[in-house]
Amino acid sequence: MNDSQHELKVSLDGRAVLRHSAERPLFAVGRADAKITSHRGNFTVNETVHQRVELPHCVTDIDGDATVFKFSRLGDHRLVARVEQNDGRVVVTLDRLPPGMNRLWINLPAGPKDKIFGLGEQYSHFNLRGRVFPIWTSEPGIGRNKATAVTQQADAEGGGGGDYWTTGFPAPTFISSAGWFCHLDCSAYMAFDFTRPDRHELELWAAPERILLGGAESPAELLKDLTSLLGRQPVCPPWALNGIILGIQGGTETLNAKLAAARAAGVPVAGVWCQDWCGIRMTSFGKRLRWDWRWDRELYPGLDRRIAELGREGVRFLAYVNPYLCDDGGLFKDADGRGHLVRHHENGKPLVIDFGEFGGGHVDLTSPDARAWFKSIIKENLLGLGASGWMADFGEYLPPTAAPARLPFELAHNRWPALWASLNHEVVAEAGRLGDVFFFMRAGFTGSQRHAVGLWAGDQSVDWSQDDGLPSVIPAALSLGLTGIGLTHSDIGGYTTLFGMKRTPELFLRWLEMAAFTPIMRTHEGNRPWLNHQFDSDVGTLSAVARMAKLHAGLAPYISAALAEYQATGLPAQRPLFLHYPEDHASYEVAYQYLLGRDLLVAPALKPGVDEWEAYLPPDRWVHFWTGREFSGGRVTVPAPLGRPPVFFRAESHYATFLMSIRPD
What percent of the chain has pLDDT over 70? Predict the structure, then answer.
């Protein structure tokens, strides 16, 4: 085709994935200026577009197995796209943007009823249609809804309220209910606009290396192809599934006392996570850590021996690390002397940013020498101490004043969490501990899928809010699952304790019972532990923890099978209903329920003060986990007292007898 008066269409198995005509061009290019500012991981992006040029004219040529399309406007602003099929996918490679242009817009075909899912970890919306989503890693924010008092107060006190689209794990990857996916190999700032009824408009601040489009007959097959492209997470260690990981802080004496109390109550403890192993730094935000990544021997005397003892008793020890170094610590001075810190783009000095009443430098994750040095620190100070895992926190903060060694800031910022994931993976692999060490992350980008052993949902508020509280972790898990992440979890009870919020017993218990039906159970004290209800705040809570952790440990064979299925097919452990019920249109609208594996349906109670809950069951024979009552699908209301979350299993599941056998009394 070489006549701009005709329509160009590229299809996969009858599904149009690219469409171009003179009236509706596939590409536009432009010129714009932008100003990006940041404060403690929160970013403000202001863009002024000076010129946008649609490219309506297209001339085609054949080059071997590829078709070359030359787009232009009256012969100017030429953009050359090479289109070919590879492994059943459409691959588009662009030559470069026309001279003087620094923006690209791509228009992809859409139907008015198509639904869009993915884009990494999305907390506020599961179906993304009807909204614009910037692709830029950042602090998710506190509240994440500009209409709420919490978000407004967070914005007033430093701009940290966030919005519906802010996330630490964005991804330029989405799935359409029309049966195709799109992935862009690009780490520049992007914004995906799904508001139009007939097309999706993607804005990029740099030309992508590739545009990849795939199609399949079912969502499950589509996800299998997508994850074979992006990679799948390393295998989760079996020990992490055998009970609960207790978040404990305060030193060796506190660790021993809290662990003893939990064991006395019958809690099956898979691990203890002591994030303050490196020392405590108290700030107005709450209890934080000393980011010098060395064992605080005063706070945790004899920790090395205690970790060894715990290991012999079947309890693993987990620690904490992030890719920053506090500027008053010894490691900062060592890294600076070796040239391993990211430099300021103007003065060439180590870039130190405010993390909230203390400063921190960035280990340069683009530098091979800096990576090797930091890996040696983690190997010696965490693995060498006896840790079997850690929270690999942060990765979102690289500011516009940064000058990494091997990438410009504009391309490095989004990649930073994935570079951090790959560094942690290399540490574990080089130590020969893959399949035994469990590290988990909150931030990510393309590449995290094949490197991060686990994800967690980040710093939810200790409340019931839809955008940042207990409910938000469900669409977050489902969106991640459709971006290639098979294993994620959340802080039981949430984390952020500010602006009058505090964790109540009811919130903790509802979060606990949901977590029993996720791959990993782990508690967190929160940033202000003294305000929050904890796992050992009273005898009744300890008893509930024991009951639900025993149930989770009992589910280990089932969860292991679901994770093995993820390794083989890319289907995540926590699945949207439509992955197994693609013909059920109502399943595509369900954002606050999930399938755990193929056969368990979990519909958590997400509001306070309720003792019953309505769930949606796709067409099938379902058995209520707690009563044995059978349902055939549709909307049902079941009792939901504390400790009995709405959970169902398929009557025809070969796990049915097993599931009934592990049900608590």
Answer: 99
